[in-house]
Automatic annotation (TrEMBL):
<keyword id="KW-0813">Transport</keyword>
<dbReference type="GO" id="GO:1903805">
    <property type="term" value="P:L-valine import across plasma membrane"/>
</dbReference>
<dbReference type="GO" id="GO:0015188">
    <property type="term" value="F:L-isoleucine transmembrane transporter activity"/>
</dbReference>
<dbReference type="GO" id="GO:0015808">
    <property type="term" value="P:L-alanine transport"/>
</dbReference>
<dbReference type="InterPro" id="IPR003593">
    <property type="entry name" value="AAA+_ATPase"/>
</dbReference>
<dbReference type="GO" id="GO:0005886">
    <property type="term" value="C:plasma membrane"/>
</dbReference>
<keyword id="KW-0547">Nucleotide-binding</keyword>
<dbReference type="InterPro" id="IPR003439">
    <property type="entry name" value="ABC_transporter-like_ATP-bd"/>
</dbReference>
<dbReference type="GO" id="GO:0016887">
    <property type="term" value="F:ATP hydrolysis activity"/>
</dbReference>
<dbReference type="GO" id="GO:0015192">
    <property type="term" value="F:L-phenylalanine transmembrane transporter activity"/>
</dbReference>
<keyword id="KW-0067">ATP-binding</keyword>
<dbReference type="InterPro" id="IPR032823">
    <property type="entry name" value="BCA_ABC_TP_C"/>
</dbReference>
<dbReference type="Pfam" id="PF00005">
    <property type="entry name" value="ABC_tran"/>
</dbReference>
<protein>
    <submittedName>
        <fullName>Amino acid/amide ABC transporter ATP-binding protein 1, HAAT family</fullName>
    </submittedName>
</protein>
<dbReference type="GO" id="GO:0005524">
    <property type="term" value="F:ATP binding"/>
</dbReference>
<dbReference type="Pfam" id="PF12399">
    <property type="entry name" value="BCA_ABC_TP_C"/>
</dbReference>
<dbReference type="GO" id="GO:0005304">
    <property type="term" value="F:L-valine transmembrane transporter activity"/>
</dbReference>
Length: 248
């Protein structure tokens, strides 16, 4: 299978402090890559640089064979990579369907087409019964789904997910994981997700990359990575749990 996203030698410093150092990442089309690492490891900075919030100091980002290094976020999205945010900001006074239709219309096309696309996407994330609900009244789990729906509506090839499970109680997590797996398995989407809930990373990821102090310290299949001594060390002896934890 071919790579859909290739990151090479990516570095980014803030006032002389390296948040990312020489990071290489390769995402195979139609797979899920999980990114883990202790607090301050550089996970969010990685998303910020790859998705166009910040320009890298060095390195390159290639999406689907196209060099998108340093592109601003809207151009990254147009090139086929969309990001979700941990802090969700839908248009509070608009309905779920209207919010998704706005996202669907970003790439151009008629309003009718955007609305049709929104209906499809709202159904695909299991939000049919909330389609006409005003976004400002949704609870966290539904807001997370809306955030996903808005991202999917832009028809990305690659979806960057920033802690999609944060704020959900354990019983709310599995349906979201099932939804993400179906995006990969049924729609062929490639997913990169940053997540603190290790059980979810283990379950969903095809491969895992571990960051520590701005560097990639381990990569491989989920089961290999948690046993890697460098990973255990990075977590200060508290090996990332594979059980059903609530650490967030
Ligand atoms: N906009 C910024 N300005 C200055 N320093 C920053 C900025 N963004 C990140 N940093 C620094 O870069 C380093 C990496 O932070 P980052 O937020 O990427 O880590 P993280 O792995 O996402 O952590 P967490 O799991 O706590 O969210 C930290 O030292 C942080 O203080």
């Amino acid at each position: 299978m071919s790579s859909v996203l290739t990151v090479k030698g990516l570095s980014k410093s803030f006032r002389g402090i390296a948040a990312l150092s020489d990071v290489d990442i390769d995402v195979t089309e139609g797979t899920v890559l999980g990114i883990i690492g202790p607090n301050g490891a550089g996970k969010t900075t990685f998303f910020n640089v790859v998705a166009g919030a910040f320009k890298p100091d060095t390195g390159s980002v290639t999406l689907d064979g196209k060099d998108i290094t340093g592109f601003p976020a809207h151009k990254v999205a147009r090139a086929g990579m969309t990001r979700t945010f941990q802090l969700m900001r839908p248009f509070a006074t608009l309905s779920v369907l209207e919010n998704v239709a706005i996202a669907a219309s970003v790439g151009g096309g008629s309003q009718r087409a955007a609305r049709r696309r929104a209906e499809e996407v709202v159904a695909s994330v299991g939000m049919d019964e909330w389609a006409d609900t005003v976004a400002g009244t949704l609870h966290t789990a539904a807001l997370k789904r809306l955030e996903l729906a808005r991202a999917i509506a832009t028809r990305p090839r690659v979806l960057l997910l920033d802690e999609v499970l944060a704020g959900l109680v354990p019983t709310e997590r599995q349906p979201v994981l099932d939804l993400l797996a179906s995006l990969r398995d049924e729609q062929g989407l490639s997913l990169v997700f940053v997540e603190h809930i290790m059980a979810a990373v283990m379950r969903l990821s095809d491969s895992v990359v571990v960051f520590d102090r701005g560097r990639v310290i381990a990569r491989g299949a989920p089961a290999e990575v948690v046993d890697d001594p460098a990973v255990v060390e990075a977590y200060l002896g508290t090996a990332p749990s594979t059980g059903e934890t609530t650490d967030e």
